[in-house]
Design brief:
It is a single chain. The chain has a 4-stranded mixed sheet with strand order 1-3-2-4. A hairpin with a 4-residue loop joins strand 2 and strand 3. The chain is α+β, with helices and mostly antiparallel strands and 267 residues long. The chain is elongated and about 70 Å long. 58% of the residues lie in helices and 9% in strands. The two termini are 29 Å apart. This is IrrE N-terminal-like domain-containing protein. InterPro entries: IrrE_HExxH, Rad_response_metalloprotease.
């Protein structure tokens, strides 16, 4: 990430922090959770919330690694497809990003299918990223853990950030942005050094600190068989009730498989 993009993110955060924080609290209330609660398993919480809104969420490895998620809204049911070709930390962030779009996006989707692409920074995307950061890294908890890890890291800022990344299971850049939002970084830190950390450096520090390196890897989880079974079960029910015929059902399944093979990455 370059410094200009970071500046744009921080300008948006400073202007909209209170507004997005209110939406985070509303989401906690919707999910019957205390706003002081850390979200330990975001997928479990998100799945239930999406279902209440009429969305089904599943994971599939996509060949395009710039896409974090695909969001489709039909007339009756919506789908959130997460790209499991990405590391678990990215998927966690993508889930919360999509929660914002489903619950709070002010403008209607421009098309029935929306792509969550890492390089796109329109206002709704900035809002969704700010929401995701606040939800995954609550302020009180984050300040406390920053202080703890600072004491364990001999003031080495990168080690603090990576310990936070491991603890909250979120992307490195999301941690850095959250630290800047909360004015936690030492004033003498040269920000370019923290912005230009590469993947191999992060992995090396994870290994040195005995952290969970698996969160840096793609899970390659593939829920296609479950989706296929769900569609097949619904189709058989519709056939029994004469809503559709068997030929239509088979066509749907063939088209699903064709699309799946087109977008699927290496397993």
């Amino acid at each position: 990430m370059d410094i200009e993009r970071l500046r744009k993110i921080m300008e948006y955060s400073n202007s909209h922090r209170d507004e997005i924080a209110l939406k985070v609290r509303k989401f906690y209330a919707f999910s019957d959770m205390s706003s002081d609660t850390e979200v330990i398993n975001i997928m479990q919480i998100a799945r239930s919330a999406f279902q209440k809104k009429g969305y089904l969420i599943f994971e599939m490895p996509l060949s395009d690694k710039e896409i974090g998620a695909l969001c489709y809204k039909g007339d009756a049911l919506g789908y959130i497809m997460l790209n499991s070709s990405l590391p678990r930390v990215n998927i966690n962030f993508a889930v919360c990003h999509e929660l914002y779009h489903v619950f709070y996006q002010e403008n209607e989707f421009g098309s029935k299918v929306e792509f969550a692409i890492d390089k796109y920074y329109g206002e709704e995307e900035l809002a969704a990223n700010l929401f995701a950061g606040m939800l995954l890294m609550p302020e009180v908890s984050f300040r406390s853990m920053y202080k703890k890890f600072k004491g364990e890291s001999e003031n080495r800022e990168m080690h603090i950030l990576i310990r936070l990344m491991n603890y909250y299971q979120v992307p490195y850049m999301a941690v850095l942005i959250r630290c800047i939002e909360l004015n936690l970084l030492n004033s003498d830190i040269y920000l370019d050094d923290l912005l230009n950390i590469d993947y191999q450096c992060i992995r090396s520090v994870f290994a040195d600190l005995w952290l969970d390196e698996s969160i840096l890897d793609a899970t390659k989880k593939d829920d296609y068989v479950r989706i296929q079974k769900l569609v097949n079960d619904l189709g058989n029910r519709y056939i029994e009730n004469d809503y559709i015929n068997k030929r239509t059902m088979q066509k749907v399944l063939r088209n699903m498989e064709k699309l799946y093979l087109e977008i699927k990455g290496e397993s």
